[in-house]
Design brief:
Oligomer: single chain
Helix content: under 10%
Strand content: over 45%
Number of strands: 20
Number of helices: 2
Distance between the termini: 76 Å
Shape: elongated
CATH topology of the largest domain: Jelly Rolls
CATH superfamily of the largest domain: Galactose-binding domain-like
């Protein structure tokens, strides 16, 4: 009798296990292989949006089964693009919000845009129009966007090489605003093409920049353009701290933190780095800072920007724009 009882318990356990394993989270087979259909049309909750005032555009749609979808928003004047992607049965407030940011430069302007929805393996496309009344505002401390030309307190040095060009340009290549800085030339005896010093006094502060004290909450950002067919450039930023804020930066006793950016791509690209992640460099190699070895963004007295290139490889060129400190990685 005892054996029969144990056998019955085993059968019940096996049945329970099979029943539990038969559950499945996700679309059913019937749903997966059903013909695609739209249950709610692709729409935007606004026909125009004021991003500067904090408004956002919400795109919505609903389908009969999960699909791989992409929304591509294109500025009709700037040709800027924003891409939003997902895999779901619906587009809603959890996955379809646009805050005015850009995926493909330049940044958006106040302009008419077309938002196009495409779905993998579906021939049809769906689109809606939305107008940007005012563009997204990026909160931060701008070091240079070149819109007002060269600040007279910046210090520029350019080598006397061949085809040198260290000038502000105004053309359709500008990723933000209307202007950017072009850095180019052939220097066959030195890595340095040219440089600019941005001292704290150029920004209305006595000796140091007005930045937060917490280095984990300070991000350095810039937009860099790689020029195809030229010697690969490097852009070196040196952040020199004036630890006693006396207006004198002493290389022997004050910290310097650096970041060297090899420009190995073509077109505009966003570079962002947290200030606390910076290291001191000597000839491109990490070294020990000469000050208190504490990252103090609020004590930065001067930023130096150097355009470098291998002198053995000929003409080098790159472009730079929108050098800005923010409290999180820049979302342009």
């Amino acid at each position: 009798m005892k054996k029969i009882f144990l056998f019955a318990i085993c059968l019940l356990s096996i049945y329970a296990c099979k029943k539990e394993s038969s559950t499945f989270d996700g679309p059913s087979i019937e749903e997966m292989y059903s013909n695609f259909s739209v249950l709610a049309d692709f729409k935007c909750d606004k026909d125009s949006v004021d991003f500067a005032a904090g408004e956002k555009a919400l795109f919505t749609a609903k389908f009969n089964k999960p699909v791989n979808w992409k929304i591509t928003i294109t500025g009709q004047t700037s040709h800027a693009q924003k891409e939003i992607t997902g895999i779901s049965k619906s587009i809603d407030a959890t996955n379809g919000i646009w805050n005015g940011s850009t995926s493909v430069f330049p940044m958006f302007k106040a302009e008419h845009c077309i938002a196009k929805l495409t779905i993998t393996d579906v021939a049809d496309t769906f689109q809606v129009a939305v107008k940007i009344r005012t563009v997204k505002v990026n909160e931060g401390f701008v070091i240079a966007d070149f819109e007002n030309g060269f600040n007279p307190l910046w210090v520029k040095f350019v080598q006397s090489g061949a085809n040198m060009d260290f000038t502000i340009k105004t053309d359709s290549l500008a990723p933000q605003g209307a202007k950017y800085l072009k850095m180019a030339g052939t220097v066959n005896w030195d890595w340095l093409i040219g440089m600019i010093d941005y001292p704290a006094k150029a920004y209305g502060t006595a000796n140091t920049l007005s930045l937060p004290t917490n280095a984990d909450q300070v991000y350095f950002n810039c937009l860099i353009y790689g020029v195809p067919g030229t010697n690969d450039s490097k852009v070196l930023f040196q952040f020199r701290e004036d630890e006693n804020a006396d207006g004198i930066i002493n290389a022997a006793t004050d910290d310097e933190y650096d970041v060297e950016i090899p420009v190995t791509w073509t077109g505009w690209k966003l570079f962002s780095v947290k200030y606390s992640d910076l290291v001191s460099l000597t000839n491109g190699q990490p070294t020990t800072p000469h000050g208190n070895s504490i990252h103090n963004p609020d004590k930065i007295g001067k930023i130096s920007m150097l355009h470098l290139a291998d002198p053995a490889n000929g003409f080098a060129s790159c472009k730079i724009d929108y050098i800005i400190f923010t409290n999180s990685p820049l979302e342009p």
